[in-house]
Amino acid sequence: MEVYLYIALFAPLVGSLFAALFTATPKKMFTGVIASLLIISAFVSSTILLMYILNGGEPVQVEMMTWMATGDLYIPFGFVVDQVSVTMMMVVTLVSSVVHVYSVGYMDHDKGFNRFFSYLSAFVFSMMVLVMSDNFAGLFIGWEGVGLCSWLLIGFWYHKESATWAANEAFIMNRIADLGMLIGLFLIYWNTGTLQYTEAFAAMPGLDTEILAWMGIFLFIGAMGKSAQFPLHTWLADAMEGPTPVSALIHAATMVTAGVYLVVRANPLFDLIPHVGLFIASLGAFVALFAASMALVNRDMKRIIAYSTLSQLGYMFVAAGLGAYWVALFHLMAHAFFKALLFLGAGNVMHAMHDELDPFKMGGLKKPMKWTFIMMTLASVALAGIYPLAGFFSKDLILEVAFVDHHYILYAVLLFTAGLTAFYSFRLVALIFHGEERYKLFGIHPHEAYKYMLIGMSPLLILAIIAGSFKMTYFEMVTALLPATEYHIHSHLTFWIMTIGTQLFVASSIVYAYKKYANNKITVPDGTSKMENSFAYKLLFNQYYIPYIYEEYLVKPYRELSTIFWEQIDLKIVDASVDGIAGIVYGTGEKTRAMQSGNLSTMLKWMVAGTVGLLSLAVVFGLAARYSDEIMAILSGLGV
Amino acid sequence: MEIGLNHYLALSAILFAIGLIGVMRRKNLLLLFLATEILLNSVNVAFAAISHYYGDLTGQMFAFFVIAIAASEVAVGLGLLIVWHKRHGNIDLDNMSTMRG
Amino acid sequence: MLDHILSILIFFPALAAILGFAIQKDSIRSYGIAVGAIEFSLSLLLWFMFDSNASGMQFMEELPLVPVFGINYILGVDGISLFIIILSTFFTLIGIASLGEMKNIKYMIITLLFLQMTMTGVFAALDAIVFYVFWELSLVPMLYIIGAWGGPLRIYASIKFFLYTFTGSLVMLVGMLFMAYFYYQASGVWSFALLDWYRLILPENLQLWLFAAFFVGFAIKVPMFPFHTWLPYAHGQAPTIGSVMLAAILLKMGTYAFVRFSLPLFPDASVFYMMPIAVLAIIMIIYTAMVAYAQKDIKQVVAYSSVSHMGVIILGTFALNVEGISGSVFLMLGHGVVAGALFFLVGVIYDRRHTKMMSEFGGLATVMPRYATIFGIMMMASVGLPLTINFVGEFLSFLGFYQQSHILTLIAGSGIVVGAIYMLAAFKKVFFGEVTKEENKNLPDLNKKELIALVPLLIISIWLGVYPKPVLGPINNSVESIVQLMHDKAITSEAKSRIPNLMKDVKSAGNSEEGAN
Q1: Does A63 touch chain C (CB under 8 A)?
Q2: Do C244 and C295 fall within a single domain?
Q3: Could you tell me which chain B residue has the CA closest to the CA of A612?
Q4: Hey, which residues 330-359 in chain A have their CB within 8 Å of chain C?
Q5: Inter-chain contact A159–C380, Cβ cutoff 8 Å?
Q6: Is the pLDDT of residue C289 over 70?
Q7: CA-based nearest residue to C480, from C301, C324, C375
Q8: Do chains C and B touch (3 or more CB pairs under 8 A)?
Q9: What are the CA-CA distances from residue A281 to residues A226, C14, C62 (Å)?
Q10: What is the count of structural domains for chain C?
Q11: Residue C504 pLDDT class (50, 70, 90 cuts)
Q12: For chain C, what is the mean pLDDT?
């Protein structure tokens, strides 16, 4: 089994390095093909490992070599395939296989084709390190590695100012969170003496609750950065500057869920600190609503999906925070499938529309792009949580968790958000695919994507439909490691009322969205309509003015403060005082040079002055020595 | 009133002061030498007086040393003075500034 | 030969430098490379012969110089100094090999060889006076490099560099003389030997004064805030090779001296001054990172980033535990490699465009893809991404200091954020965007000579990031002995509790390993 572990881990790295060899050369189709094949081989290995674990195999654990060892610290490159990590491995390799195949078509005309695959495979490798590591330090390697790849891929079109800006924003915001994570690691090390998961978790129940709470908080700060939770969320929407396959893989399916994975992985810790868990859940519910509200009015197709991702991440954190780790992980998995599908569909649309992102400028695309229309609609249905698609099983479960745990406020927020989710998803679908063919105004002739891209997407489509049926198998497997809490509503009546009620609520949202946006009267908004001038619309459209606030009150002051530090303090105070001291010495020499005029009589005068000075000093000291007792007596009388 | 050590020391101090002022004020090299001689001799007076007071001959011996050194100094100094005078036609101190820093 | 390998390492380049005067101008480059290569292989031999499991000094040499005053020529290396010596010989080699066309190249090579002698001397000396002599001698070649090959302000910069550091080291010399005097009072014989001094336990108030005297010398060399202002001038005016040597090796003399002198000689004073120095280090980390962000000149960005990283090294050193000190020693190497490489990289565009202003560039990633790639990797190493050399050092330094103060580590840790800000901003300005300037459209990518310097540094910074053990192991052993010495020597109870006692830990670590097995 270890062979498969190594293949799953290193095949992406090999692919990345291979593609990297050709970065300086023009597009070569085979780099994409080989990179995809290597990722698929990683996927196959992961599947074999999954089968092995499903059949009750012991977790596979390997220790490759020592990484850092000094003092009492010992960190190896250790990897583990257990029930949790194999789930993540499946998600990561499956989605990345699809995205790789898709990208061969999507990046077809791009100059940086080879470079793209190098980055993309490097990302998969980092993600695999992240999920497979058996210690926190290894997790951190992957954590930073995916951050790096995300930086590279968001800024892939580096000649675009907005892309590089977004890349830097993402990296720096993640770094802020990584600092929290790092502090969390330090806390774990100094309190448990190790960074290995098993040993650290084993030592935790013996620790003070306060310390544990701090550990949990700092680790969660790390998770907040990667998973773009409020207030570190702004980078995710801006990250949509990257190529669409990247958005599908990194900013929907895998990297952003790393925060959820961290909380799930550290479940023994978070179990000990339920109050921190409640905070996580509350923040998650807040983000779910907050992000969904911003998606309602946005006019950028990819940003809408990005906000939807953010909102779904909030759902996952609610589940993880309330201790339903397996539910969180299940939703993570289901979400990865349908959200990646949604993004890839959006990629098709973008290709067809020549990188136009405003859905108001599309409309009626269901005719030229039938398959994309079907896929995106089904993905949206899954996202909305309609029976029997994947979203129903995973998302409804989170609602049940909140309900069963008597967190009715969270439940209400999530329920309301589910309605919003359905609305904005189908607003998007309606605007893109239904109604009048507004794109004709802009002289665009849309076409369906390559066939192999569509075939490549099909596994996601199938999984988005049927993933819910794996629920029990999954539950049995993963609860070997995670707390096996089942969330059943005791009264059957309540259960049915809730389920059907939710379904009806969501369905009515969908119908409303269709009614409002799938008609022929939609025009491209020009900023004159009543709605667009309302305060609420402006607030939502400008993302609650948060990016503006960050720019005005954090970025600009930082820049100004830096300049002040340099120009005012470093040059005018620190350096000037050094030069001042040197200047005093130099000036003294310059002034006293006149003494050495060579004029004998002046020099004699100075000599006499010196003699007198020395003599008087001698007299003073002589007297002081002679009358020292008296002086001391006087001084002590003065109370010195 | 008997003349004691203090009187000699006072004399020495006064002579020393006269010599110092001479050193400071005189611009003529010859007079400068004279002032220097006064300085040295003021010290000689002090040496001799203290030597007598303590009944120790070392001080008087030292006075002789000083006299000898003063004599040689004057000899060398006067020689240089004459050369300088031959070359420049004066012995004004203010003109002797070839060693200005 | 092995008995005198350190003396050979020190004086071979000096001898070769003197012979270099007789070499023809045409063949001086190959001569320099040959000497550098021999010196580098000698240092590798030193590593090969080095016993990684021993913690004490190895390859000791002793020769009386002024026996009456206990001044002896004593040399020796341990895990801490070994790798810095290797790093210095390595940089001399690639520095000479990558020298571009310049006037008086012969004298440049001779100066570099002379500099090599002083650097090895500093890191191998175990006698305070010998140490001091090499320490001061190292100023001379650097002064010459800046003054003779520097930019328009070179005279100001070189004089400032010289006087500033010289003033500091004079104070240090006074401290050394006092130290020897106290040793004389305690034992009745004069000695400047470091290993003798290690055995001397001083009362706390004396420690405080002596620590301060040594501190001035070391802190200016590092350079610590607020003594850092000579560095931007020196870097700004120095030629590429001068900046590389300065950043890679010469600055490390200060931090090395902290580990070699200040900590083991004055354990109580180290604990006493720990927090003030940590605060200074934090100011260094954050303040200079912000100053770096405000720079318009790419070389100044790298220069200030050097100061910022040196802050992390200082912080790790004053963690006073094995993790922190090992981390800081490792970071000395890491920063040497990374900062050296970054200065090389800045030199590359300076050679092509004769400007270092970031506003003059933009979009270079399109024009010079290889250059952009290497710069990017080195930038990420500088930012401290895991699996690069700097991460190991930074992680351990912060980890170590976390034991001493949680909140200060949290503040210092924001260095990883501000560090990313200035580096990414600079990278974006230079490499991203469209190529706007006509002059930049046809810039040639890296040539062979530049790759000779950069590729080895690239390999090292990734190799030691992935597998630091061969270097970290010997460092760890020597650091453990220093920490144990400090713990044993400490007088005050606070120092005893702050500095861990490893004797106890060794046992428990053994137990836990057995348990793990």
Answers
A1: no
A2: no
A3: B20
A4: none
A5: no
A6: yes
A7: C324
A8: no
A9: 17, 68, 68
A10: 2
A11: low
A12: 90
Please name the member of A66, A183, A561 whose beta carbon is closest to the beta carbon of C469. Answer: A66
Cα–Cα distance, C34 to C97 (Å, whole number): 9
**Cβ atoms < 10 Å from Cβ of A616:** 10
Which chain A residue's Cα is nearest to B100?
A: A598
pLDDT: which is higher, C466 or A480: C466
Whose structure tokens read 């328009």?
C152
Contact call for B101 and A596, based on CB within 8 A: yes
Strand partners, C58: C77
- For residues C458 and C489, membership in a common domain is answered with yes
Residues 9-48 of B with CB under 8 A from A: 20, 23-24, 26-27, 32
* Contact predicate A122/A100, CB 8 Å: no
| Tens-place pLDDT, residues A202-251 | 999 888 899 999 999 999 999 999 998 888 889 998 899 889 999 888 88
Mean pLDDT for the stretch of residues C479-498: 90
Q: Specify the pLDDT at position C511.
A: 43
pLDDT tens-place string over residues C121-161: 999 999 999 999 999 999 999 999 999 998 888 899 999 99
3-state helix, strand, coil in chain B (%, to 5): 80, 0, 20
Query: Which residues of chain B are within 8 Å of residue A604 when distances are taken between CB atoms?
Result: 23-24, 32
Residue A405, C-beta contacts closer than 8 angstroms, at least 6 positions apart: A322, A323
Together in a domain, C25 and C5: yes
Instruction: Indicate the residue type of A86.
Output: V
Find chains touching chain B: ≥3 CB pairs under 8 Å: A
Question: How close A434 gets to chain C, by Cα (Å)?
Answer: 38
Domain span at C469: 273-517
In whole angstroms, give the CA distance from residue A192 to residue C462: 30
Q: Which residues pair with C77 in a beta bridge?
A: C58
The total number of structural domains that make up chain B: 1
Distance from CA of C50 to the nearest CA of A (A): 19
Does position A601 have pLDDT exceeding 70, yes or no?
yes
Give me C241's structure tokens: 């090779």
Do C294 and A567 make contact, defined as CB atoms within 8 angstroms?
A: yes
Of B20, B21, B33, B95, which to mutate for an interface test with A (greatest number of A Cβ within 10 Å)? B20
CATH of the domain at B58: 1.10.287.3510
Burial class (CB in 10 A: 0-12, 13-18, 19+), A589: exposed
Record: contact A596-B20, CB cut-off 8 A: no
How much of chain C, in percent, has pLDDT values that exceed 70? 97
Together in a domain, C390 and C257 = no
Of A144, A159, A182, the CB nearest to C385: A144
Q: Express each pLDDT in C72-102 by its tens digit.
A: 999 999 999 999 999 999 999 999 998 878 8
Residue with the larger pLDDT of the pair A468 and C112: C112
Residue A609 Cα, gap to closest chain B Cα (Å) = 10
Other Cβ atoms less than 10 A from the Cβ of C25: the count is 9
Residue B49, in any domain of the structure: yes
Instruction: Give the Cα separation of A379 and A389 in Å (integer).
Output: 9
pLDDT in tens, A193-202: 899 999 999 9
Average pLDDT over residues C496-502: 86
With H, G, I as helix, E, B as strand and everything else as coil, classify residue A298.
coil
B101 in a structural domain = no
The last residue of a domain, from among C265, C283, C308: C265
Give the integer Cα–Cα distance in Å for A250 and A120. 9
Domain containing residue B60: 5-96
- The enclosing H or E element of B87 equals helix B58-88
Last residue of a domain, one of C265, C282, C309: C265
Pair C91, C228 in one domain: yes
Kindly list the residues from chain B whose CB atom is less than 8 angstroms away from the CB atom of residue A598. 96-101
C305 compared with C502, residue with greater pLDDT:
C305
Chains that touch C (3 or more CB pairs under 8 A): A
